[in-house]
Amino acid sequence: MKKTILITGASTGIGREAALYFAEKGWNVAATMRTPSKETELQKNTSIKLYELDVTKNETIETALASAKKDFGKIDVVVNNAGFGADGVFESMSDEFIESQFNTNVFGLMRVTREAVKLMREQNGGKIIQIASVGGRVAFPLYSIYHATKWAVEGFTESLQYEVAQFNIQLKIIEPGAIKTDFYGRSRAFSAPDYTDAYDNFVEKCEKVAMEAGAKGADSIEVAKTIFKAANSNSSKMRYPIAYPANVLLPAKRLLPETAFYSLVKSSYKI
Question: Is 199 among the residues known to form the active site?
Answer without folding.
Answer: no
